[in-house]
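Write out this protein's structure.
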Amino acid sequence: MNIIEKIIANHSKFDIVKPGDIIDIEIDARVARDFGGTNVVKHIEDNNLSIENVGKTFFTFDTNPTGSDQKYANNQQIIRLFARKHNIKVFDIDIGIGTHTLMAEGLSYPGSTALTTDSHANILGAIGAFGQGMGDKDIAAAFHKGKVWFKVPKSVKINLNGKRPEGITAKDIVLNLLNEFGANSLLGYAVEIYGEEVEKFTMDERITISSMGTEMGTIIVLFTPNKEVMDYCESKTGKKLELIKADEEAVYEQTYDIDISSFVPMVSLPGKPHDTVNILEAKKVKIDSAFIGSCTNGRMEDMYAIAKVLENKKVAPGVVMKIVPATNEIWNRCLDEGLIKIFKNAGALVSNAGCAGCAAGQVGQNGPGEITISTGNRNFPGKQGKGSVYLASPATAAASAVAGYITSFDDIPDEPAIFETKTDNTQATDKKQAFRPDVENPSMIEGRVWYIKEDNIDTDMIFHNRYLTISNIDEMGQYTFDNLDGYEDFAKKSKPGDVVIVQKNFGSGSSRQQAVDCFKSLGIQAILAESFGAIYERNAINAAFPIMTYQTVEELNLSDGDRIRVNFETGDVTNLKTNKSIKADKFSEVQMEIYQNGGLF
């Protein structure tokens, strides 16, 4: 078996597992954040669920670790009261990013399993652990039962051959990989990375690379732990740990050999993390702000990198620079080692530890027309604000903040660029009230088609993060697709009974359940796609919302407004206008059972 198969087998009743098996997995760390945690509490209380093991159950407050938003503050307090009642540990607003906390507290370690409401929980692949972000229904089930069902994924191997060029950071490496594989070539796979240079990757570098596995569509990016990782995790857990590594005869769907010596410094262009270019193509783009932090680049090595750039320098006039360490432990080290002084002398804002720019966090959001260079993992429209976001390494972001425009750390000008203000005339669009009919769960449906010919429609396009505090499903429908170009009026024009057909990787991105429930709120009957984001697929199935995958729909000769018939039991899809039919993937036994049950609970 390979790494993920060994970890899953070790946490199941089976000695051997293979891709496609759907099995129950014991979860070592069951975690909910302040983002999504309140819904977990609601599911547990509404369904009278018990907590299977409070010693393995945790809350982490990292998306808004200042309580600066009243709704977040309210949600955090609801969780605190629930946690006190059940004696559950809360890593509160003074601790930092939850996934990093799991490693720092010895709760996640090589060979272990963890679930959180964080879609970047697969960052734990950096230490050879199984981490998954899941929706609030899954997390509530894990709190109650200690296990969740999971389909064993296929695995691929990436060999990074050759010598790593000088100055190529871990962020550059993962941006080069995104350039190679895009957002969906590795969709649904577990990825293992090997190579002579890979063995030298530090733990912080592995974290940076694994944290962007979500942006490549992977289930997880796994590294075989080296001595540094094993020593760190053993010191945190206080026990001797077993090294989990792939067998020599392990099976992989595909093996890719990539020359790391050809890697160059890169940035992601605004809107798509996988739209990466050589930094030379983005040089001299004037910036308004720089953000350094997130689960991808808030580690100590990242802090050292930006301190090296900022020492005895100033942030360019008019440029706002925000620095957010990943954990309070890292923040304190920055204080003790004099890095905070360097940051402040340079003119940067240093915030308490947390997620910062992501998920409507405490800092890092930008405004309309603002151009930001960020070390985050996502730059979807609206993810870090209403402006444009370039993704880059910490050294590049710091150098750009000093220069006033995008540049590399070895090409900082003597005089910074002059800031020029910009205006934006964006206007809010009217929203209509939601409509939610009472619907039974038929095995065959008919409906009018919305045919959206786009790949990689992410959850921020479906249901933007500015609405994430909404927990009433009846209010959600009005915001559906209002961040998807060309479909901002979808909620006004759609009708109960409609069917949505899209292309690859629908629902990539965040773990938010609202991106499923907003369609239920409008009375949409089903979504058909060539493939779905892994978390989105689970959320839809658990919510008894019909989704199906197909190989191709070209034979249907579809147009917007056509009526189709979909049979969930057989997979038959028929265009009633042309009488053309295709075979899609029928519901699995698990999906049908949950669908007929009306949901996971």
